[in-house]
Amino acid sequence: MKKSIVAAIGLLCLAGMITTPGLWADGGEGADIILPHDVPSYPQALRETDSAQYASKTVFLTKESLEKVKVFYAAHLIQGDLLETYSEETQEGFNLIYKQKIGKQDKELVLVTVLQYKQHHVFPVLEQMKTQVLKGIRKEAEYADVEKQYGKLARAYFKRVLKADGKSTDEGTAIYEKYFRIAYPKQAALGDAKGTRPKSDQSADKARAVELKKQMQVLKAKKDFTGMLKLSREMQNQFKPDSDVEAVMEESGNDTWDSWLQCLKEMEAAAWWTKIVYAPNVLKE
Predict the structure, then answer these.
(1) So where are the chain's domains?
(2) Over the stretch 163-174, which tens digit does the pLDDT of each residue have?
């Protein structure tokens, strides 16, 4: 009989239905077993990413408020369940916790964590538009209207998407980068060029600069003013700023307001307001 019980427990462990020591929410250890129960998925939520390569299968996003999600899970509690407030530096919400008495100990598992941003984080689109005001291109009243309508986007979540290079990013960042290229094409192109420049070329530039500095010291010691002037001109020609930099500086004075306004509208359509994180093996879809 004991062998049958041990075998059954072994199968449950392989199937991921039994948590292992060290996974208790209260930090307990030992051979005691607590079985998590199935949790229904929130109906108006979608996976954070559609890519199997980067997918976290237990992370979902919804456009519904945290309060509505809480009402849903409060209606699906079973014996041993409770909702407990959760808070961290930038996010807040609640945990759905399952408690069970095992022997003389009370064990608990966090089955679901539901989150929302509790404070605004850095939002570069509004920073770009504020810069337009500071440069005198737009009025403060215009910025105030935009901030009132779209300021909430600083607390939005976005789905994970794949960029053209195959790397993962959030959709909000992808939309921002798209409109940055529209607003400042020369600056974006220059950034791309610098980003793809071989490190070997950068190392060669540094080595050449060190060599020219040594040559200048030698000429100075010899008081060879003609040679110093000639070498100085060579250094200026080799390390003068890229001609594109001047174009970028000129471009920064352009009125890019409409581009950023369209960016905000696209971000608003892509925004999600609540994140739902399910523990492994509890999600019932």
Answers:
(1) 2-41+55-119+274-284, 195-247
(2) 888 888 999 999
